[in-house]
Design a protein that fits this description.
With 204 residues, the protein is mainly α. 48% of the residues lie in helices and 11% in strands. It is built from 8 helices and 3 strands. The chain is globular, with a radius of gyration of 17 Å. The two termini are 33 Å apart.
Length: 204
Amino acid sequence: MKKFVTPPLPYAYNALEPYIDEETMKIHHDKHHLAYTTNFNKALESHPELFEKSAEDILRDLASVPDDIKMAVKNHGGGHVHHSFFWEIMAPAGQGGQAEGELLQAINDAFGSLAKFKEEFTAAAMGVFGSGWAWLSVVDGKLVIEKTSNQDSPWSLGHQAILGIDVWEHSYYLKYQNRRAEFVENFFNVINWLKVAQNYQATK
């Protein structure tokens, strides 16, 4: 029976400094993400047929997940999928390229400009009450900004996220304490636009 595994970071723990610190990355990946993956696997053990699906497909079809594990799958499966996605859409400053080509055109069409997108995405990230995420997703072929609480997932809504930011306190509190706005501002320095563009192309 295959189980889900926490993928290794695609860069060193300190690679996103000074914007995201090494200690936060170690705790975020090795403790928080690992716990989501472990608990996701634990939840699925009573319904091992679900291991045949991808984690994303399980979230896409949450309605068919048995009631006795649905909440655990939503929380821990969401945590596993979201974090696996999150590490990939970041890169060391200067290595993630720029928003350009078709992706930039789609952002301009949806929001007016990259600057306006940044403004609206920041507002969404700041507008998450408590823990959650802000996302840039493709819905019916159009780019939209959305936010979800806790580990509720765009995948479960039939949306395809191409960029996301984790605004749970564990993702920034060691360095930024209560200064979420500063964390969100600095996140733009480590976006891997090359990966976001790939994610966008994959939705077409």
